[in-house]
Design goal:
Chain lengths: 207, 907
Amino acid sequence: MAFSNRGYNFKVVLLGEGCVGKTSLVLRYVEDKFSDKHISTLQASFLTKRINIDGQRVNLAIWDTAGQERFHALGPIYYRDSHGAILVYDITDEDSFQKVKNWVRELRKMLGNDICLAIAGNKVDLEKDRHVSKELAETYSEEVGAFHCFTSAKTDEGVDEIFLNLSNQMMKIALEKSDEKPISSSPNGRNLQVVEDEPQTSRGCCG
Amino acid sequence: MNKYDEVLSENKFFKCLKCDNFDLFKEAVSQKYLICIPKASVTSNVQLTTLLDHILIPAQKNSNNIDYCTKNNNKILLKEGKFISKINLNRCVNILFEETFYEEELGKYKVLCVDDYISSLFKDNFTPNPNSLLDIKHSLKNLRTINDFISCISDLVDDSSVFDEFDKYLSDILSMPFSKANPPETVYLRTLVHKVLKKTLNYVLQEEIKLDENYILVLTVCIESYVLHNLHNILFQYSGLEMSSKDEKLNRILHSLKEVTETDLNVHVTNINCILSARYELAAINNFKSPFGKFQCIKKTIDSFKTESKLTLDELLPILVLTIIKCNLSNWFANLNFIQTYSFTLESNSEYSFILSTFEAALVFLFSEELNEQTVSSGYVLTSKESSFCLDTFNPRAHHYGNEIIHTLYDYIKKDNLESVKRVLEVTESEKLVPKNFVSQKYELNLCHPLCVCNECKQITQKSLKSDFVLDFNHKDENLMTPLHIAVWYGSLNIVEYLMSKNVNLNAKNIVGMTPLHIAAYKGYQTILLLLLLNAGCDIDSTDSTGNTALQLTCTAGHDSCVKALIFYAESIGYKFNFGEKNINGDTALHLASFWGYMNIVKFLLSQPRIVIESIRTKNLKNQTPLDCAHNEAVASLIEGAMENAEESAHTDLLLLNLEERNIVKIDPEQKLHDEDIYTNTYDLEHRDTHFEVRENSSDSEVNNILIKILNAIKVGDNRLALFYLDINVNEPNSNESSKCHPLCQCTDCSNIDTTTISVNKKKSLINFIGEENYGILHMAVLKDDIELCQILLQNGANPQALTKSERRSCIHLSVQRENIELLKLLIKFNVDINCADTMGNTPLHLCCICGWKEGVITLVESGAEVNINNKDGSSPKEEADKNGHFEIVRYLVRKMSEAHKKSTFS
Ligand SMILES: Nc1nc2c(ncn2[C@@H]2O[C@H](COP(=O)(O)OP(=O)(O)OP(=O)(O)O)[C@@H](O)[C@H]2O)c(=O)[nH]1
Ligand SMILES: [Mg+2]
């Protein structure tokens, strides 16, 4: 369920080639840390972040993934049931942008328009080595309906913005969906209601 | 997972700050000061000074802590998620969570929710929040066993009858007649369970609404786990059935990956113990019967990786994959399916699903066989149970072959490049690069028997002496692998053929006792297997150091084609397999195929008429028949079917069989040849660590090689050969025995007429050598129940105290395992420490009590064995006897103990 009495619960998955800075982005966002080495603690593989947008609580569960090619086939296990995905590429690496395109194709095919996409052009602090054209990236993102943002985990640029924007999008989609279906009926009836008879404090559609 | 949470916008304190003191709030936000809000349950009426203490101005940042100064000018510091007063370091306020706010008017600001007033840190009468103590005990983190769940439920619900009530609901499902032939669908089962759960929860929660929300979550999880624990036996079997073919395939893959190491997976583990401890954690998954318990087991496993601080995140998956490979369990998908199907309360919890997804990803990755393709070609390591316990310590790839030529040779063999192999071998032969001494050479020759002097063998020995032939074709590397082993390992057919044409030793054993045939069977190379068999001289029956024959190995690894090849070949030459042959764990081929869930192999084995009689009722050391260790219901019903058929036609079959047997093979159903540890779990990995230290001791592979030969000689009962190797001369035994006071007598008169003459010899040290094999010579003699040999060995300086390598058991332990009273008495006579404890902390008396051997208990106690001694489980012998239901022994021990007690109080 995307919405509970504690606000929205969203699952966000980070995808992208190895070494583009997925882990760095998450660590910067959640713990405000950055390391020059391709090293992080395991704790970072799954992090949560609570934000509150104009009075709406949003709980983000952020799933980092491994970019190594050999694990590519495992993607679906990680991105199923996600509300949002951040596709990361390295602006100094043309290939990593191609990978983003592949991910977009796969996600749209498997999850349709239910999933909100954001594309992060990471490492903008290395602007001088840019290999992916700014215009190209932005037009592409617009075409596929994804929010595009230039980020740097190193200098903390655009990190907050991309998560905030994605959260806003996810809230919009969740609201649209809750209009179609009443919230009380959980997706596939697989959630156990703890106390059936207790009146549900409905905080559903108010602000 | 059940971290504290609340809606801050409804928190009184927050409202007070934000609405009533907006200027202060605005200043804090614009200056990026830290804003703390005590949790809702502690906030009462708020004064301005208190508010000021909750606005923190950063002062200084040290490595671990940050100093703050409150707006009220009090100094505090932030350390590991706690605020500590600078005046009194014992006081602290914990951070519960952080929330980042984005508001149009104010922009972005962060708020920390804390578990008490910050200002309480500066007051004199500080009382810690009582709630926080309860939190720890009932946090989900600490719950995993059924005891945890029960005690938590009884703590949170004051109603002793609740469990009776639960059991009533449970009986709804437990009493249902499920048909085996027509298993219920998972969806149906899930709904059933869901209904029962709802009933139980409603029953409890009607009365307990006063609990805070976090407790309700904990309580719900506990009740759910209690219910599922009780339903486990019914439900898990269907998960097993549903996943049977997936698990079957996975098991095959896992066996083919036994030799994978962390380097294959690009894992850079500096501390191998991290994987070891993780493996113990994960291998216990089948001990947990509730989905949540199993989940906790996986979570603990993953948590234990975190102790490895240098590990990068991207290694989580590979390292989990590696841990799974090393666990030796047979039902991974069944476990996954069970957890996924029967999770209700936490199903949508994000951490729960993250960990399950990681676990699933690891299994799917293994299942995809990607790893298989990548590593098969990367190099050879021994395939055996043993090697899988060594992780990196035993990885030939990490060793230096020490010899360039061998290195290149292996490379050519791997590529099946015949011409190059020929060149290398034939050149080195002519250059005589590897001279060998005669003795070891003699052992390598292909004689009928190492001592044989028949004409043919004489010729071979003479020829080898004369021609100065160097043993390049039979060269053994540090793992005692010959080129033939290596060629079979890589499945290089041409090389195998070539080497065989050079008359190499077909039955050479490597360091774990595997012959080339074993390797072919384990790796599943049918063509090579047949090639080896067809070229007579290959011993189809030989066993490796874990007591497995080729047939058992191929049943373990799951190669249908090789099972068939072995059996058809045997049939074609009129050889009768002994299907009752047991390995060191007492498992027959049928046990193994059944345990790992290989349907086709089980089917094929059962189609062999003799197997039904020879093996279907055999028990392994865990006292299980093949049916008992069946991987899933499908396998079980195959075996059951065969048993029924067998009973019907038992009469006629038995008649036929008796006729057959008389001519060919004698089958001893009670055969317990390789019993090594009766009590430890076969597939349980505990206490294998000792392996590491010992491996280093056995530097001399040549000595080890001889040791293996001696052990094998004893195994097959060829004591004369064994003693020959040991250089012990024994006069014609039994000739003078009658004249001794007692067969075991040590008095001077008797020792004069002793049946054995001791000759001190150069290889004496061998007698106490424990090399790569698990046990020494004396151990083997004990395991063979060979009193006579034991006596000879002991008189020739064998150390009765020597311990086996893996379990660290003494001969006395082993004699107890064998339940051999004569041996036990003999050993006691030799002044062995009868209270010596093995790796589990079990003394011989513990073992007796576990297996219920009363005669042994009496003998030991009477010889002064300690009765008040605990093993690593904290149990005394009496408690072990009690646990295992040997009440006669319990009574005996209680009597003895009270007698001893009386004596001591009287004196
Ligand atoms: N200059 C610069 N370097 C960055 C930035 N973000 C990440 N890096 C560096 O890029 C390297 C890889 O970062 P990671 O975050 O480990 O990359 P990843 O995407 O998680 O890689 P995989 O986990 O292998 O898929 C590290 O050395 C980081 O220090 C950035 O914004 N600027
Ligand atoms: Mg990463």
